[in-house]
Specification:
The complex is a heterodimer.
Chain A: E1 4-7, E2 10-13, E3 19-25, E4 31-38, E5 42-51, E6 54-57, E7 65-66, E8 76-78, E9 87-94, E10 105-106, E11 110-114
Parallel strand pairs in A: 2-11
Antiparallel strand pairs in A: 1-3, 3-8, 4-5, 4-9, 5-6, 7-8, 9-10, 9-11
Chain B: E1 4-7, E2 10-14, E3 19-25, E4 33-38, E5 45-50, E6 56-59, E7 62-67, E8 72-77, E9 86-92, E10 102-103, E11 107-112
Parallel strand pairs in B: 2-11
Antiparallel strand pairs in B: 1-3, 3-8, 4-5, 4-9, 6-7, 7-8, 9-10, 9-11
The chains are: A mainly beta, B mainly beta.
Chain lengths: 115, 113
């Protein structure tokens, strides 16, 4: 089954404790991206990657890191989480180049709470 | 600065009614306008999309209307069903610029039986 898998789905942590949210896709997509979803703000892009070893900042990258060592994996790293990073996080992927607009396939989300 | 503004934030409609969600954009270079549907506990999924060379696109009970001069587009859900209860996001992108999606703030739709 084609899917984007995120882990953990739920996490409660404390300020300053490093954490990693993993993302893996089995569709051989070149493009992967992380979003955060906050009420009234929609989905805002954190980081994206066009291919292995190629990553770039999105709209809200502060406090986050990513890496793309393998095509299928795109982990999101919070080196020193703060309460304002409490949010619902989504990983997404799609093919490149886009001919028909590029449908994004999303994971089921990771709800993070930073105390 | 929100480049895609979506309204309303939430709406309640009776079964069989019409749900209408509106989006307005600022960047005239946007050339791809998708709508994503998100059920509780799930990630968003592509519902329907339109390009500015057409003014309307219909897929089943879902219709996108596009007004290029007004820089607005809207989603109409005809004969709304309880199973349509979800959060809907409009988005816009520039295909030549890598198709990075800019999302609206989302609309939570509740269809009452």
């Amino acid at each position: 089954e084609a899917q984007v898998t995120q882990n953990p789905r739920y996490l409660i942590t404390v300020t300053g404790k490093k954490l990693t949210v993993t993302c893996s896709q089995n569709m051989n997509h070149e493009y992967m991206s992380w979003y955060r979803q906050d009420p009234g703000l929609g989905l805002r892009q954190i980081y994206y990657s066009m291919n292995v070893e190629v990553t770039d900042k999105g709209d809200v990258p502060e406090g986050y890191k990513v890496s793309r060592k393998e095509k299928r994996n795109f982990p999101l790293i919070l080196e020193s989480p703060s309460p304002n990073q409490t949010s619902l996080y989504f990983c997404a992927s799609r093919f490149l180049p886009t001919i028909t607009g590029g449908e994004l396939f999303f994971g089921e989300g990771s709800r993070l709470t930073v105390l | 600065q929100q480049q895609v503004k979506q309204s309303p934030q939430s709406l309640i409609v009776q079964k069989g009614g019409i749900s209408i969600i509106n989006c307005a954009y600022e960047n005239t270079a946007f050339d791809y306008f998708p709508w994503y549907q998100q059920f509780p506990g799930k990630g968003p999924a592509l519902l329907i999309a339109i390009r500015p060379d057409v003014s309307e696109k219909k897929e089943g009970r879902f219709t996108i209307s596009f007004n290029k001069s007004a820089k607005q587009f809207s989603l109409h859900i005809m004969d709304s069903q309880p199973g349509d209860s979800a959060t809907y996001f409009c988005a816009a992108s520039i295909e030549a610029a890598g198709n990075k999606l800019t999302f609206g703030g989302g609309t939570r739709v509740l269809v009452k039986p």
